[in-house]
Amino acid sequence: MAEATLQAKDFKGEVHPDWCPGCGDFGVINILQRALAEKGLQQHQVAVISGIGCSSNLPGFMNTYGMHTLHGRSLPNAQGFKLANTDMTVVACGGDGDGYGIGVGHLVHALRRNIDMTYIVMNNSIYGLTTGQTSPTSGFGMKTKSTPFGNPEVPLNPITMALGSGASFVARAFSGNPKQAVEIYKAAIEHKGFALVDTFSPCVTFNKVNTAQFYRENTYDMNAEGHDKSDWNKAMEIANRDTYGDRIATGIFYQNERPCYEAEEKDTLATALVNHDLGVSAVQAEDLKARFR
Ligand code: SF4
Ligand code: MG
Prior knowledge:
By secondary structure, the chain is an alpha/beta fold.
């Protein structure tokens, strides 16, 4: 029987998000649900896997498979999930503290490894869940609970970091621009490889600097202005210049078509790992599983 075409609302879970009213993460979840529906996916074909933080609660509000894992550990779990279920659409998600702080080592290797999945970082330049400390993307000099005299560190630039780590797809979206963001998320899901989508998602409660109004006034669509997403050098130049200034680029910075990890490991992964023959009897398999319970 043919499966029905789903709407964005079909990807909404039974639990309503408990984010603060006005949090950018509401925009992100709506954008993701629209993108999944417009890609023609069914709920059982999708897994959303997160770390820890306000935004990492997102899988609990989705009507898909999901995992809410450990701080900074969305990517090891999501990559393992994808290799075991190569025919599924896997979306990892979390915040800037989770992905660019404690989880950044995993991110660098995921970028160069290039497993076919999408990673959405809800970047609000603050630690929201722990009530407002400086994060890896907080601006230099920004006053927060943990830096009352101003942040003495320069912010991490996730776009140049990704470009320098062998990324095959790097983009930036804004939760307050759903029209553009849905197209970026769909392109990221379509991309045959690891797709990083840094997404400005304002924290209305603890970051009074990087507000929705700030991003509305200061972002522009680089692709609409003619940026060639195959040009790595230009992407690097724009990312260096237009990340924390008055004019901030959004859109797809860079995309190439190098083979994804699964294509390089096709002998092992032609069959999803969950369907591999273990080469042991049913009794032996039960015995093995019992040892890990
Ligand atoms: Fe969103 Fe900030 Fe509230 Fe967390 S604290 S739910 S990031 S607005
Ligand atoms: Mg954050």
